[in-house]
Structure formats: C-alpha cells, structure tokens
Design brief:
This protein is an alpha+beta fold. The chain is 25% helix and 27% strand. It is built from eight helices and 15 strands. The strands form four sheets. Strands 1, 2, 3, 4 and 5 form a five-stranded mixed beta sheet that branches. Strands 8-9-10-11 form a four-stranded antiparallel beta sheet. It is elongated, with a radius of gyration of 27 Å. About 4% of the residues have low confidence.
C-alpha cells in the first residue's frame, strides 16, 4: 500500500500526559524511554516504505524528551532522504522550537501552561527519495553529489528522474516509477532498472553506452563527431579510429547519418573507443551497398 500522507502518532513514554493522568507518571522510567525511541524508529522505517516519493510523513509524540523527539527527527534525516518542512503557526500559540543543541530543523513542541492542551511534539517531513534493496538512501555528500550533478546535465528533463548510486554506477529512474521499481527489487530478481547514466572510475565518470542510445540524452550534453561509413563500421568493431582534428577533448558522442552510435574519449593524440566489448561486430564482412541497406 502506498500513500501520499502517513501519520505516525507513535507510542511514547507519555511525559506530556503527566498533568492529566497520574498513571502516566507511575509508568514512566528511563528504561521505558529507551524502549520507546527504538520502537519509534522501527515504526517510522516501515511507514517510510509506504510513502510515495514527495509524500509527507507527520511524526508526533505526547512526550518531551529529546530522545523520542528531536533525536528521532535527526535520525530520520540522517538515514532517509527526508526534508523537514516548516508549518505555519501563530506567535500567540507560544509553540516551542527545538530543544536539542545544534539541531535547528523546524519542529514544534506544545508545553502545557504555555500552549493550550496537553504536551505534544510534532514534525512534518517530505520524502525526497526511497530505499534500495532495503538499504536506506542517504543524502549524497561531497564528491558523490558532484558526480550526480554532472550526470543530471546529460539528461533531458532531469527533474523527471531520481538518481541513485550503487557500486560506482549512477542510474536515472523515472520519478513516477521509482517506488514500484524499488519494491520489485526487494521481492524479485531484477536484471536491470532505469537508465544507467555513468560509471565512477577514480576521479572521472564515464558515460554509459545506454545513455548514448537513449532518447533521454541531451543532444548538447557532449561534443559530437560525425563518422563516414567505413569509420562507423570500424567503431562498431571497437577498432581505433581517428577523430577530426577540430574535435574537442573529453568524451565525444560519435554519430553516423545523424544517429548517435556511442562514446569515445578524445585525449588529443588519440581517442579511446568506448563501444562495449560484448556488442562489437565480429564479422569481417563489410556490405558495400550500405545506402540500400539503410533505406530498407
């Protein structure tokens, strides 16, 4: 089951009910607080799986300690790609913000005597991405984020995709299919998903051949070089060919009759053929009447 909004009013140590319920005082203990914050994280982990990309998770407790409140929100941000959202409030409501030192995300604490009603803590978070094989997708930091940013520039309408990085490969998955793809990967053996965009190798990122053949490739993402028929056949045989003298250095999309065949890396004095080894033409026969073949 998938939803756009999930409310997690999680079981808690009940400190916000002390004024109203003496039984809540009798049941409170440090051990119960420890039990509660762990249980709350388990509940959120399962709820997160049911939330659509872009959906909202509303987290609330009726307790005051930071372990069950701010520290859990910080844990959600650190372990899921969650964005804490501000909520419109009135100043005269006298809602208290975060009490956890160094944590400044917008959270809302209702304290009896200052606000109406009993004790309450709440926060609203948006799901920006999902999970892969049950592993939590964390926000990309440092170099990985730079790689993904570079790959975004290679994709037409990149906002329609979500990007994941696994085993040094960056893959673009259509946003509207992301949740379904991730669920299938958890329950079935999926050979391929999404569009492989690039492979991280050292400090470089190499564009994938699948990107060259995709309709989602931005036509101005790479410099291009047009090949004649003999050069195109040589390229598809994964042979070394010379690019035109004016070709820019770096990754180049090579074309024949306006169609992109794949990528080469121009390093100046030579160019590396990046056509996949397993795809290369193995026959030595070259048809002479290629115009007639193409027209067919």
């Amino acid at each position: 089951i998938q939803a756009d909004v999930v409310l997690c009013d999680v079981p808690c140590s009940g400190e916000g009910m002390f004024r109203k319920d003496e039984g809540a005082i009798a049941e409170w203990s440090v051990q119960n607080v420890e039990k509660c914050w762990r249980l709350q994280r388990d509940i959120v982990t399962e709820a997160w799986k049911c939330l659509n990309i872009g959906g909202l998770l509303i987290y609330s407790t009726c307790t005051f300690n930071t372990k069950e409140d701010e520290e859990n929100i910080r844990w959600i941000c650190d372990n899921f790609d969650a964005e804490v959202l501000p909520v419109n409030t009135e100043e005269h409501w006298q809602i208290t913000q975060s009490l956890l030192e160094g944590f400044t995300e917008p959270v809302y604490r209702f304290i009896p005597g200052f606000t109406r009603g009993e004790g309450l803590f709440m926060a609203v978070m948006r799901k920006r991405s999902g999970e892969v094989d049950g592993k939590k997708m964390k926000k990309e930091k440092g170099t990985r984020k730079e790689y993904t940013g570079a790959c975004r520039k290679w994709i037409e309408n990149d906002n329609d995709f979500l990007f994941i990085e696994e085993n040094n490969q960056i893959t673009a998955i259509p946003r509207r299919h992301f949740d379904v793809c991730m669920q299938l990967r958890q329950s079935a053996r999926v050979l391929a998903v999404g569009l492989p965009v690039g492979t991280i190798k050292g400090k470089d990122i190499i564009p994938e051949h699948s990107l060259a053949l995709s309709t989602s490739l931005r036509r101005d993402a790479f410099p291009t070089a047009d090949l004649d028929y003999q050069q195109a056949i040589a390229y598809l045989r994964k042979e070394n060919i010379a690019l035109p003298d004016h070709t820019e250095k770096g990754f180049v999309a090579v074309r024949f009759n306006g169609a992109v065949l794949g990528f080469m890396k121009n390093i100046g004095n030579r160019a590396n053929n990046l056509y996949p080894q397993e795809w290369k033409i193995r026959s030595s026969h070259t048809p002479d009447e290629y115009d007639r073949i193409i027209n067919i």
